[in-house]
Amino acid sequence: MATLTAADLSLDHDFARALDEQDELAPFRSHFALALKRPTDIYFVGNSLGPMPLAARAIVNEELDDWSRLGVAGHMGSRRPWFSYHEQLRAPLARLVGALEHEVVAMNSLTANLHLLMTTFYRPSGKRTKLLLEKGAFPSDTYAVHSHVAARGLDPAAHVIELAPRAGEWTLRDEDIEARIAELGDTLALAMLPGVQYRTGQAFDIARITRAVHAVGARCGWDLAHAAGNLALNLHDSNADFAVWCSYKYMNSGPGAVGGAFIHERNARDTELPRHAGWWGNDPKTRFRMDDRFVATAHADAWSLSNPPILAVAPLIASLAEFDAAGIARLRAKSVLMTALLEFLLRGVSDVEILTPTPSPARGAQLSLLFAKNARARYESLLAAGLACDYREPGIVRLAPAPLFNTFDEVWRAAAIVRGS
Ligand SMILES: Cc1ncc(COP(=O)(O)O)c(C=O)c1O
Which of 92, 198, 316, 375 could be bridged to 395 by S-S, CB 3.0 to 4.6 A? Predict the structure, then answer.
C-alpha cells in the first residue's frame, strides 16, 4: 500500500474505495464472521470484542473430536497434545508483541495475570512502597492494584499514586509522567500503565516511560488490553519488566479468551523470584514426579498455575495464524492510514471533539469522540444506522477500525453516519 501523508487525504468516497482496491490485506476480511445484521453494517468494536476467525470453529471442533475419541490419552496423543498445548502459541505470540519466545505465555485472564505479576514485581520495602497508576485506569486494574496494596498491609490511599492529565486536558503528556516518576524517586516501587488508554485511545511510549521508571530504581508493568494486536509492540527492546493482555479484543480470540503475559527475559530466567506457584509453572521435565518442591521453569511459563483450558485456547491458534499471515507491521501501517482518514473525515463535525491524540505513535486504531450534546441519543442513532461502536461516560463514543477486517470504505461510511447524527 502506498505511503500517504495527511496532505494526500481526500473527502471523496472514491478515494476510500481506491485505497481498498490497493489494499493487499483486503482478503483477510473474508476470514472473519463479522456479525453484521445487514451487509452495509459496520463493525468498529473490535477493540471490545474482536470477530470470530472462521478457522476457529474447525480447531475447537478438532479438540472436541479428540476429547471424544481419546479421553485422557489426548493429553499426549491428540493432534495438538494438551500437555504442551500452550507451547505452540509461543512463537506467534512472541512475533505479535515483539518478544522472545521464552518471554511470553498464554494463560488465565488479564486481571488474574496482573495479580500474579504484581506478586512478583510489586515488592514494597523500606520507603520504596508507592505504586503509580493513571487516574481513570480501567476499573479492574484499579481494583487489582488497590487490593494488592491492601493485601500487603499498606493503605492504598497513601501508597497508590494516580497520574492525572493537566486541568482541561484528557490525555497525559510524556514529560509530565517522567516528572512525576522523578519526583517519586526512591519511594516508587512499581509503575503500572496502559499501552493504549481504553477511554481516550492514547498510546504510550513504553520504552521511554520504562526508562524513566528504571532510572529511579523501580519496576514497570503494562496493561496491553488495547495494545496487543493493535500496535506494533517491541516489548523485549522496550525493557518493560512485564506486561499483561487479554486476547478477545484486537486479537479476536473469543469472549473470555485466555489472556497473555510478557516477562522480560532478565526476570523470566530468574527462577528465584517470588511468585504464586502452580504445577504448570514447574519445569515440565519434572512436573510429573509430583515432588513437593516447586522447580520453576526458566521461562515465562513459570508463572502459569494450571493446565490450560484447551477449548478456550484453541481459537487463539486460529487468530494468531491470521496475524502471522498478515504481519503486524503491515497491519499497523494500514491502521495508521485508516485512523488518519477517519480523523480527517470527522474534522469539524459539530459538537464532536476527538480526544485521541493525532500523531500516530500516540494512538492505535481507536478514535474516541466526545459528544458535547445529546451524547447518548447520538450514540443510539449511530447504532441504529448500522455503525457498531461503543459508549463510555461522559459522552464518549469509541470507533475502532481494525486493519485485519475493516475497509476504507467503511471508514468513509462511518464518518458519514457520525456527520449525520
Ligand atoms: C484496559 C483493560 N484492563 C483490564 C480489563 C479486564 O480484563 P479481564 O476481564 O480479561 O480481566 C479490560 C477489559 O476490557 C480492559 O479493557
Answer: 375
Total residue count of the chain as it appears in this document: 421
The pLDDT value given to residue 258 = 96
Please answer whether residues 227 and 260 qualify as being in contact, where contact means their C-beta atoms are separated by less than 8 angstroms: no
Asked whether the beta carbons of 335 and 364 are under 8 A apart, the reply is: yes
Domains of the chain: 6-33+328-419 (3.90.1150.10), 63-323 (3.40.640.10)
**Rounded mean pLDDT, 380-394:** 96
Helix (H) / strand (E) containing 230: none
pLDDT digits (tens, 9 = 90+) for 169-204: 999 999 999 999 999 999 999 999 999 999 999 999
222 in contact with ligand 1, CB cutoff 6 A: no
Decide: 141 in ligand 1 pocket, CB within 6 A. Answer: yes
Lookup: cell for 55: 478457522
Q: Ligand 1 atom closest to Cα of 249?
A: 14
Q: Does the C-beta of 248 come closer than 6 Å to ligand 1?
A: no
In angstroms, the first-to-last Cα distance of the chain is 32
Nearest 5°: phi and psi at 378?
-70, -40
CB distance 140 to ligand 1 below 6 Å: yes
